[in-house]
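Box 3.1 A note on notation
Throughout this textbook, protein chains are presented in two layers. The first layer is the amino acid sequence; the second is a token string describing backbone geometry. Keep the layers aligned when reading.
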Amino acid sequence: MPPKREDSQLSQDSVMTVTPEDRHEILYFAYGSNLSTAQMRQRCPYSTPIGLGRLDGWTWLVNERGYANVVRAASGGGSCGVYGLLYLLPPQDEERLDACEGVPWAYEKVTCDARWVRDAQGRVLDEPVRALVYVDKSRVRESVPRDEYVARMERGIEDAVDNWGLDREYADGVMRRFWK
């Protein structure tokens, strides 16, 4: 009996080569409650988290709707950027995520330059990538989060800190300052 696909495992020396015409997934940069890989599995069952990412030149906030948003940082603001989780997102999951994120009325889809900071094995990469980011361009002022959102954010933050190398000081100083 031939081995099952789920029984096979790539060796550390394996290299996967994908040509652009074969590739259908895009990179998605999650910075809010989608830091929770459990939530993403429910929303986008075919997505794959691949590591920690960073958007340089952006600032993280909770906006007037009570949800996370990113806005371009004021020049010279000294922002360290926004950290988040990078996912490989296939087309069917992108459509599901659009619905979850309220495209086009709540968020717009923007492709941004980002950095792939750390991979799933914890290796530091610091590689440039292009990633889909959901941005609310209309509601850009700081506000307070919705009560239900705080619990989801806490789950996402803990997942990202414990499993993906998100710095706890960043999470406390940038994210949790909106509700603690």
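The chain has four helices and seven strands. The mean pLDDT is 88.
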